[in-house]
Fold:
Amino acid sequence: MLTDLGIKKLPVPERRREIPDGKVGGLYLIHQPSGEKSWAVRYRFGRLPKKLTLGSYPALDLATARRRAQEALGDVAGGKDPAAVKQASRAAARAEREAEHDLVERVVDLFIERYAKPKTRDWRETERMLNREVVARWKGRRLSALTRVHVHEMIDSILDRGALIRANRVFAQFRKLCNFVVERGIIAVSPCTGVKMPSLERSRDRVLDGAEIKLAWQAFEAIGWPFGPIGELLLLTGARLGEVSDARWAEIDLAARTWTIPASRAKNRRTHAVPLSDDAVRILEGLPRFEKSDFVFTTTGSTPVSGFSRAKRAIDRTVLQLRREEAEAHVDDPAQVKPLPPWRLHDIRRSVATNLQQLGVRLEVTEAVLNHVSGSRAGIVGVYQKYGFETEKRQALDAWSRRLAEIVSGDAEAKVLSFVRK
Structure:
């Protein structure tokens, strides 16, 4: 009969041993050459030999092992197979864990944390989009249970709202999420396989003309902090909206008149030096600062400014009011004045590029100002041409700043500095 003292004194065997307990028949102490010990019960069920592992020693002591062995043998006498019951319980627990691991809301959180945050600059928008359109629809469901039918139903519901571009964006991010979890082995097949992009998109070609640029600048001045200065810097630099709105003071050297956008915040993941004109420096110098905050544009001190949809509506209302006031000054009927054709803040970037070309700035310099890696800087040129055009970029943005001042002041007769090709 096994005793606790006897078990502790057992020498380490050269090969695996099964030591029977003389008190409870069928109970064995398994002793490994590594010195590890565990308990098992051997019995017959349906004329077949069976083995049930109880646990390791000393975590499971001798008295507890005997009690559990007797319970298992009692189940055998009652017509139950304890080993089969244990195996089924483990399978059910594993299936439950896999089901939880596969929940839509869980894979969305995983995708945002492991993919979107480290690899994309606008991950917050991706998170909002997936939560609103995917999690809200399928929360509590397993991703592996979704099929192409479910994906089409989601897309159709967005298209029925008239949100064609939104449908494209949601599908693109959801497809990327599904490919991500397939790669990780969470699901075997993506439900997006075989599903096409919901609608064709045309590249936007909206460019603000001189009169519209003037109105936009006046509206920026009218609405003031924080969205007004953001709009003015968009016009003066040609930078992307997210680059300006998320700017940090540590990136800006007012003395050197340079703003350096780090690779982590640039869309193409390349550090971008933006020369600052005198007007851009003046705007930055006049901005309020939060104590212990590095954000240039913030209302909380801890996060960048947000709410651009609401701000754009305020800008549009201001532009319309300015146009009506101008009509009234010319003794025209203000009620007949219509809003400007639809435009977005991102159209400012295209408008700056167009004006740089009109000023005679070389295409490769314009693309350097915009931090583009396509066009003239793509392919083999992008591999071997590493000149940054820093001097040319500063000349171009200084010339554009002067031209912008002329547009805003209405001095159409002013002489404009143009760049002439050698």
Summary: Confidence is low (pLDDT under 50) at residues 375-386, 413-422.
